[in-house]
Amino acid sequence: MSIVADTNWRALAQSLKPRNQAFINGQFVDAVSAQTFPSYNPANGQKITDIAACDAADVDRAVTAARRAFESGVWRDLKPLERKTILLRWVALIREHQRELALLETLDTGKPIKESVNVDVASCAAGLQWYAECIDKLYDEIAPNGPSSLVLVTREPIGVVAAVIPWNYPLIIGSWKIGPALAAGNSVILKPAEQASLSSLKLAELAQQAGIPEGVFNVLPGLGHQAGQAIGLHPDIDAVVFTGSTEVGRKFLEYSARSNLKRVGLELGGKSPHIVTEEADLEKAAMYVAYAIWYNQGETCNAGSRLIVQRGVKAKLLKLLEPWAERLAPGDPLDPTTEMGALISAEHCQRVRQYIELGQQEGAILAIGGRQLRPESGGWYIGPTVLDRVQNDMQVAREEIFGPVLVVIEYDDLEEAIALANDSEYGLAAAVWCRDISKAHLAARRLRAGTVWINAFDHTSINAPFGGYKQSGNGRDKSLHAFDKVTELKTTWLELH
Length: 497
Prior knowledge:
The protein is of the alpha/beta class and 497 residues long. The chain contains 15 helices and 24 strands. The protein has two domains: 10-268 and 473-491, Aldehyde Dehydrogenase, Chain A, domain 1, CATH 3.40.605.10; 273-462, Aldehyde Dehydrogenase, Chain A, domain 2, CATH 3.40.309.10. Strand 12 (273-276), helix 10 (282-294) and strand 13 (306-310) form a beta-alpha-beta unit. The mean pLDDT is 97.
């Protein structure tokens, strides 16, 4: 049997004692202020624990430790094979503790336990392993400058990197930030979202066991307007790599301008278009459209939230979505058969409900779902929802709902579909469904998005870069391109004659 099916997750949850202190300079410590904030289980609304509420004093303490570790060379100057060995030991510990990490992720975020095990923990370990394996395979360059000089181009760690991550995929997105930063030799401060800090604190415990030196990896839980702002304004942090809302991304750019012009890498919001043509395989498209918006409760930055469908096949495609909506109805996240869990908080659940109501006020038709479910649980659940007859200038078509809400927009020809898809402030991802591959590829070229899938959606690999155009951010996570955000290029010119 699989680990998901043969584990008594409810019993394990009863015995779980999650870490709730900050991890600074190799030690778990309370916040300087001794303040805490509550962490709630989205599945039932019950408090899990109280977590250290770090603020500017704790950020300063962590930055001091991180800077001291960086300047000492205790990590930066290790031979590549030595850094690689330690990181691979960390990866092995993550896999050894996959049950606990997965359970923490599910209790914290409300996502189904089978996804936490099979996707989130697995992807975290695989991502960190990939970057660990990169360490002794990255070569520097010699510029072709003629026989009179030797021009070396070397990549060096930038220094102290703060990784600020969201609550929807803490382990996965955390690994995208931590992996390249540590592999390059930086010191790292990880700031998880206040709604989901527990798995990050467990990672710190395992990092300590793996032998990552004191001060090299720190975890600071805390509220965004306190710990997050203090990170953005700190004059001794060299780079911030952030995933989250466009609104907060703008704040980090402002903080950088007000402080030391630290480098800021941003992966922000999305309103990803899913273009379906009359030539598409509609049954296959329906499955991908369903998972693209309803996977992880729709709490995914690149969720395919705008279905731009050719008028002649719209009715058939919507009919094909109905059984998927029934299959993906939310359930108890600790049930191994559950495919959709709970939304992150009561506030966010209310926000999603307000968007569903707003869409209908704007003239959209509620075609599927739209109701809050499982009220007896005490948790925050909304079922798969479809708003039909949406115009691209409606708020529900332009703003990121971040919930299981699909908006349906009709078009007549592919030129119109491409124009509708590009008419957005976002540009994180897109998809084209068309059996004519030449036509699909030409459309993909014209879509202003960081990732475009053809006859698929959300296929992913750590070796493929991920990031967006326009207000979906800058820079790229994943792949070797992620090193660009956490390293400096140095040119060393040696004149030979």
